[in-house]
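Budget justification aside, the reviewers requested a transparent look at the raw inputs and outputs of the sequence design task funded under Objective 1. We therefore reproduce one unedited record. The lines immediately below are the structure tokens for a 319-residue chain.
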């Protein structure tokens, strides 16, 4: 385990140039004291590693030093193959480059590893898209991608719900959630997220910008996603439903089961959270006679009114 960790430290420093003890400890899931002991071990083994002090300091390898200990295990190659986000790479125009790089990696591997990787490829395919695949078009993605890579400001026109808005932003990164692309950008000191399919116009400017030193795209996305979920509207209700619905309700994105208890004759009572009154009524109607709204009264009355309208509609001959 220690040998693997020392190799990981070498590769991390070789790829990133400089990392602090805290950053290394987080990536390797060890304590900072362990990192310091590992640095002493590397130094004792003749690796030219040193520490730079200061707020922007960290551990570095001597300039020009490169390690050739980059051999990958069969498990690592299989994981790389299975993790390939091929649809998103295609959007970025990088599918061919990834395929070529992966084939070079496999070709440089031992024969047993090559056979193993091919064995997995033939038997396992991961499709990251949902059944309700988005048909969003992102013709401006290439322009935005170029601005992100070059670190140049971007002038764009964004379609909000009520109006078109012109912005000059500092593009920090791209995020693909399933097949939907987002731009994360800094605007007047604030970091915001834009759905790329809603961009009407985009133009890369000649002006560059200074990227925030402490910005981490993955951490920002995780935090903003959690905040978005926490800020979603909540509409509490009590319902009665047949027990055979339980697996479906546990997977339902827009109904949160808070508490369930057995009722009688195969029925369950539950405290749930919908998002709004309107969505609660729409979802409950979709489950037909297998779900009954107990409370609140306004939702139950809304259900009664909708059911009466349906009865009127279907009681007459179709026009």
């Amino acid at each position: 385990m220690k040998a693997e960790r020392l190799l990981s430290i070498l590769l991390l420093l070789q790829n990133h140039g400089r990392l602090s003890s805290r950053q290394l400890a987080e990536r390797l899931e060890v304590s900072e004291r362990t990192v310091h002991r590992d640095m002493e071990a590397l130094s004792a083994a003749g690796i030219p590693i040193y520490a730079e002090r200061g707020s922007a300091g960290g551990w570095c390898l001597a300039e020009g030093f490169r390690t050739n200990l980059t051999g990958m295990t069969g498990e690592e190659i299989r994981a790389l193959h299975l993790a390939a986000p091929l649809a998103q790479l295609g959007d970025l125009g990088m599918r061919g480059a990834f395929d070529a790089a992966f084939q070079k990696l496999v070709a440089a591997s031992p024969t047993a590893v090559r056979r193993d990787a091919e064995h997995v490829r033939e038997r396992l395919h991961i499709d990251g898209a949902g059944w309700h695949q988005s048909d969003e078009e992102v013709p401006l993605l290439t322009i935005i991608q170029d601005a992100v890579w070059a670190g140049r400001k971007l002038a764009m026109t964004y379609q909000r719900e009520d109006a078109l808005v012109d912005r000059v932003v500092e593009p920090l990164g791209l995020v693909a959630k399933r097949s939907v692309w987002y731009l994360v950008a800094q605007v007047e000191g604030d970091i915001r997220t834009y759905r790329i399919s809603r961009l009407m116009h985009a133009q890369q400017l000649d002006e560059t910008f200074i990227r925030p030193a402490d910005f981490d795209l993955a951490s920002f996305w995780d935090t903003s996603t959690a905040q978005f979920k926490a800020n979603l509207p909540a509409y509490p209700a009590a319902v009665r439903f047949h027990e055979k619905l339980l697996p479906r309700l546990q997977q339902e994105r827009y109904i949160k089961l808070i508490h369930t208890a057995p009722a009688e004759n195969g029925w369950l009572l539950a405290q749930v959270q919908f998002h709004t009154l309107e969505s609660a009524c729409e979802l409950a109607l979709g489950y037909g006679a297998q779900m009954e709204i107990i409370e609140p009264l306004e939702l139950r009355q809304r259900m009664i009114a909708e059911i009466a309208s349906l009865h009127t509609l279907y009681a007459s001959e179709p026009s």
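The mean pLDDT is 84. The first strand starts at residue 18 and ends at 19. Computational costs for records of this kind are itemized in the attached budget.
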